[in-house]
Sequence to fold (118 residues):
Amino acid sequence: MAGRKVNSTNYQNQALLENKCSLNEMLVLLSRRWITEILFCIQEGNNRFSGIKGELAPITDHILADRLKLLEKNGLINRQHFPEVPPKVVYSLTGKGEELCVLLEKLCNFSDTLSICC
Fold:
């Protein structure tokens, strides 16, 4: 919840929900734009920055880099750097990342059966 007023009601409500159940915290992470699509790209074998960027063409370099860092920080992907010229970085799902993708696929299939109106 970085960059928000810590004394706002919205911030306090979100903090309460996240502390109440870790699922709420996970949902906040997953609700960030591009997160699930990046996970699915890596799962499908697009394990390089350029491959993910090509698959998700409208995403900016800045947002993709930010989301990859978030996924790595949360233990869902691994980042492997090869000290070559030019440098090479490869991303892969961790065990938790693979497990999450299975759950997300089930949620996608389930959501296809619903008529959700926002």
User: Anything to note?
Assistant: Residues 82 and 88 are 5 Å apart (CA to CA). Strands lie at 77-82, 88-93. The longest strand covers residues 77-82. The helical segments are 9-20, 22-30, 35-43, 49-55, 61-73, 95-112.
